[in-house]
Amino acid sequence: MSAELVQKACDGDRNAFGALVEAHYGFIHSVAWRWCGTELDAEDIVQEVCIRLGRSIRTFRGQSAFRTWLYTLTLNVVRDHQRQSARRRRNEDRIANDPIFFAHLPSEEDDRGDWLWAAVRRLPEKQRDAMLLVHSEGLSHAAAAEILGCSENTVSWHLHEARKRLKDLLKKEAV
């Protein structure tokens, strides 16, 4: 990989940036796959690396080899992805182990999260948004209220109503 191509990409040359991504795509994918172990996660990570690369290519100063810099960027995205996945699993477990839902969810661990989030996506918009912000994203009621443009009490009410509706949905699905 020529230093000239890297420099052109750093200077904003879109064609050079495209060539740089194309030249390193396999490297990024193989690093992502080795760290996460699944094709789907590796593809998600590669996409995010390409987005971040586009945002940060101009900060590359050549103090290390471009590939070393790219490796660091890729590992940062992998770590972020792993943290997000762990947070999502914790939140799914928190909901799935709620006594309201526990008896109605599938016994297979992998199926629980998929089934639960499919049911959440079927909720009315405000209930769904509150559930996703608080339980999937891990936000506080106050932060969710700010995003939704309502009070914390309203978020709490939407969550309460969502739990009741989910309980009914999950009972019907389990039958």
From TrEMBL:
InterPro entries named among the record's database cross-references: RNA_pol_sigma-70-like, RNA_pol_sigma-70_dom, RNA_pol_sigma70_r2, RNA_pol_sigma70_r4_t2, RNA_pol_sigma_r2, RNA_pol_sigma_r3/r4-like, WH-like_DNA-bd_sf
Source organism superkingdom: Bacteria
Pfam families from the UniProt entry: Sigma70_r2, Sigma70_r4_2
Transmembrane segments annotated in the record for this chain: none
Residue ranges constituting the RNA polymerase sigma factor 70 region 4 type domain according to the UniProt record: 115-166
RNA polymerase sigma-70 region domain segment(s): 20-87
Keywords: Sigma factor, Transcription, Transcription regulation
PANTHER family reported in the protein's UniProt record: RNA POLYMERASE ECF-TYPE SIGMA FACTO, RNA POLYMERASE SIGMA FACTOR
Family stated for the protein in its record: Belongs to the sigma-70 factor family. ECF subfamily.
Protein's name according to its UniProt entry: RNA polymerase sigma factor
